[in-house]
Amino acid sequence: MEEVDYIVVGAGSAGCVLANRLSADGQKTVLLLEAGGEDRHPLVRMPVGFMKALQRRSLTWGYESEPEPHLNGRRLPIPRGRLLGGSSSINGMFHIRGHRLDFDEWRDLGCTGWGYQDVLPYFLRSESNWRGAGPFHGGQGPLQIRHIDTRELLDEPLRAAAVRAGHAVTDDYDGEHNEGIARGDVAIDARGRRSSSARAYLHPVRDRANLRVHTRAVATRVLMDNGRAVGVEYTRNGQLQQARARCEVVLSGGAYNSPQLLMLSGIGPAAHLKGLGIPVVVDLPGVGGNLVEHPRMMLMYRASAPVTFTNQLRLDKAVWSVLKWALFGKGAFATQICSGTVLLKTRPELDRPDIQLLCNPVRFDAGLWFPGLVKPKEHSFYITVCQLHAKSRGRVSLRSANPSDAPKIALNLFSAPEDVESMRAGLRAARQIYAQSPQADLIDAETIPGAHLNSDTELAQAIREFGGITHHPVGTCAMGVGPDAVVDPQLRVRGVAGLRVVDASIMPTIPGGNTNAATVMIAEKAADLILGRSLPTARAAV
After folding, report:
1. Whether residue 299 is found in the same domain as residue 264
2. 272 flagged as catalytic
3. Alpha helices in 276-416 (DSSP H)
């Protein structure tokens, strides 16, 4: 049996940060447990590889949702990273924090110390931004943040069309102006490699004598002694093992696995646990509840000419692009395939954007092709219409008391009528942009959902047919002060000593941006909370 000061369960976006920060002074020993393996696969390192990495079973948990009642009973694929770096090793690498009011909302819900001015210093500490250090960005942090190189991604027609549709141009969503069209920032380093939490935080310090990393280690329960978490039971190499924590156990498994492990350990809704024969340690009804995602809807246009990124997927060109990436960190495969990102308000009275558009000059099911051997996919423009502040809530629950069984994930998307209304408005806003020249000059016809679908009823039906998720689950171990709160503002699990949750599951509401940046911030701040430190609050004016 190993004995250390801190056990961190999950080497994902948050866990790698904690392993780095908690072991930094060399005084405390840290054990990091990761259910998956290493992050060496080329699809993980090469930015364009994320489209395939998301679908690769060896890199993910292979989860899927329960039948979604408001999406025609469809089961949605839920790719979550099962490797070092977690989902930061397979995601689209976008780095957008969310609006400042998103974090002030956390503070106003009773989460003292989590307002925008409180969390901004931890965002700054986490990043090395291409803009350099300033009031809104860090210049010496572990995460390498670059702008998307859009020169070959048809960005100019899109930007001009967005301006004609009435949208502003902004250079920085995380600065003064969180609205308009921008190239977008991504977590990619100067060598064209993905800057995941594992690459940024864990690998540079993995040889520390006081840090141990166990891969292929699947946690099965938290060990308890008189109301205190004292260790973790896990399986590794076919054997059941235990590790003891002298100070604290920290769960960083994400919005699905952290509540699953709590419930397997007897911490959760009492009736649910009793029904599965799990002894109740603490009755916490909020565990697994409050699940919220960024719902998405696809919008696709057939191009009027063969001008899209599909040209770069011709086999001979793709081989050259891979070589350029491997040798020089340059070229078409060394960045995100996104012409631009638009944050917009569908109603003028809103205090922050409610829709995000991710505009891609390629189909997401595009693959390699070669003349005379494999036909290319149809040249298309693919837009993800993402709703930033959904009202619908789902739940994560146990399928059984067996830790090997995947959790039940009921997303319950579009159960709130307001979400359907917001998504319809987002679709119409996206259509308005793509109807403007010069972008419209590159389009032949709308193929999904189809230009003939215009009425509220028709668009609602299209959402049920094509709606999905953007892989940003949060909220299932929500921070707060009410009866449904799972952790307090110090991220300590209510009713249990020596146990915290540090990952996206603690977000009480979902921020209006790609959630990886906020998850890294949470871990940066949590490390200080655990070690009894804090950074001064920021004074950046927005």
Report:
1. no
2. no
3. 315-328
Closest by CA to 306, choosing from 436, 450, 154, is 154
Looking at the structure, do residues 169 and 231 belong to the same domain, yes or no? Answer: no
pTM: 0.97
Is there a contact between 275 and 399 (Cβ–Cβ < 8 Å)? no
What does the pLDDT look like over 331-372, one tens digit per residue?
999 999 999 999 999 999 999 999 999 999 999 899 999 999
Between the alpha carbon of residue 298 and those of residues 273, 384, 449, 510, the distances in Å are 38, 5, 8, 21
In the chain, % helix, strand, coil (3-state, to 5) comes to 30, 25, 45
When pLDDT is cut at 50, 70 and 90, the band that residue 537 belongs to is confident
- Strand 63-64 versus strand 77-78 pairing type: antiparallel
Do the Cβ atoms of 466 and 447 come closer than 8 Å?
Answer: no
Q: What percent of the chain has pLDDT over 90?
A: 96
Residues 230, 1: Cα–Cα separation, whole Å: 12
Question: Which 3 state secondary structure label does DSSP give 275?
Answer: helix
As a whole number of Å, the CA-based R_g of the chain is 23
How many Å apart are CA 68 and CA 282, to the nearest integer? 30
CB 90 within 8 A of CB 54: yes
Q: How many CB atoms lie within 10 A of CB 213?
A: 22
Q: What is the pLDDT of residues 496-511, one digit of tens each?
A: 999 999 999 999 999 9
318: amino acid identity, one letter = A
Residue 130 in any domain: the answer is: no
Distance CA 11, CA 16 (A): 5
Query: What are the beta bridge partners of residue 408?
Result: 397
Q: Per residue in 286-324, pLDDT tens?
A: 999 999 999 999 999 999 999 999 999 999 999 999 999
Q: How far apart are CA 280 and CA 363, in angstroms?
A: 48
Statement: residue 541 has pLDDT above 70: no
Same-domain check for residues 445 and 419: yes
Based on the domain organization, do 372 and 497 belong to the same domain? no
Co-location of 211 and 312 in the same domain: no
One-letter amino acid identity for 427?
Answer: L
pLDDT of residue 540: 58
Please check whether residue 518 is in contact with residue 511, taking contact to mean a CB–CB distance below 8 angstroms: yes
- Terminal CA-to-CA distance of the chain, rounded, Å? 51
Domain hosting 269: range is 1-97+186-293+394-404+471-506+514-542
Q: Which residues contact 116 (CB under 8 A, 6 or more apart)?
A: 100, 101, 103, 104, 107, 538, 542
Which of 387, 405, 388 lies closest to 396, judged by CA?
405
From CA 174, how far away is CA 178, in angstroms rounded? 6
CATH code for the domain in which residue 332 is found? 3.30.410.40
Segment 364-388 shows an average pLDDT of 94
